[in-house]
Amino acid sequence: xxxxxxxxxxxxxxxxxxxxxxxxxxxxxxxxxxxxxxxxxxxxxxxxxxxxxxxxxxxxxxxxxxxxxxxxxxxxxxxxxxxxxxxxxxxxxxxxxxxxxxxxxxxxxxxxxxxxxxxxxxxxxxxxxxxxxxxxxxxxxxxxxxxxxxxxxxxxxxxxxxxxxxxxxxxxxxxxxxxxxxxxxxxxxxxxxxxxxxxxxxxxxxxxxxxxxxxxxxxxxxxxxxxxxxxxxxxxxxxxxxxxxxxxxxxxxxxxxxxxxxxxxxxxxxxxxxxxxxxxxxxxxxxxxxxxxxxxxxxxxxxxxxxxxxxxxxxxxxxxxxxxxxxxxxxxxxxxxxxxxxxxxxxxxxxxxxxxxxxxxxxxxxxxx
Length: 369
Ligand code: NAD
What we know:
Number of domains: 2
Radius of gyration: 22 Å
CATH topology of the largest domain: Rossmann fold
Structural class: alpha/beta
Number of strands: 12
Oligomer: single chain
Bound molecules: nicotinamide-adenine-dinucleotide
Helix content: 40-55%
Order of helices and strands: HEEEEHEHEHHEHEHEEEHEHHHHH
């Protein structure tokens, strides 16, 4: 059953089931592809109804990470882990340390980080058992909250999309609607304001909305109105699947570029945006700033280098829009195409043998010597 599901979902390299009875750990690590480098992806903790559901989720998420890292131009592969359990009730130091030991056993083939249901504190426990974890707290030498870097990357995505659509990356006077003023959305709104954009915002959190109104001169609309408001650029920074059958015909923007993951409810909505002439910055390319940040942490963290890295998102999107035009395909497909090209080209280079640090066949006896 497990192999059948793996075969159906994709072309993964390795699936590791982790079980520790005493610690109450049931987890699955999925390594999708390591052609570009070690597989990196967060650990999700979720109360999955069945083990099958957890397996399908980790297979899907790890495959997504291969594409995200490849399109971001990082030397990383795609991986992900899921812990089966209720993040509100089932967490303990022992659980995350047991999990850390399993990650350690993979010798750096898989590197983890926090994700839905896990926190920087949980990753601190993982770090007690393995160094193959990133996005840990600054107190432990990590880079901390990646949201400002994600927001900076989205700003570059907005600028690249403005250049593509309006012929200039200058955001002065451009009307940008930001849905969600959370960890990423508020930083993005600040950056947009500094760049001279006119902001329209909505959030269910009234305090954040008030702050944006007062500090960033943002126009406030209701959460029902934000997707249909008249604007140049819509920046979704709340939840996924917001481009769907109900919302797509109401959009009143020329560009969609934001941080939200899995913005398109189905692929057909990406096709529809293309047909409607609305430029869509593929979500996993636009929101790669956080991933770039943890990559820099692995190299030895510097905020300046992390900020510099996020600038690459501008060029990545320009390349995607070029592929989209050349091949006559929607941008979400062009992003996959760009990732697959890099996986094929660089992956092939990496297959070359790089030599050995020592002679491995020490017991070899050569006749006559
Ligand atoms: P967050 O929870 O801090 O912020 C989300 C905000 O959206 C909250 O303020 C919430 O009140 C608001 N919201 C919820 N429902 C809303 C609605 N119907 N209308 C308007 N606002 C609503 O999350 P975040 O970390 O800022 O992430 C935002 C999105 O970006 C998510 O989809 C996340 O997966 C994605 N993302 C985040 C990062 C990161 O570094 N934090 C990286 C990549 C992708």
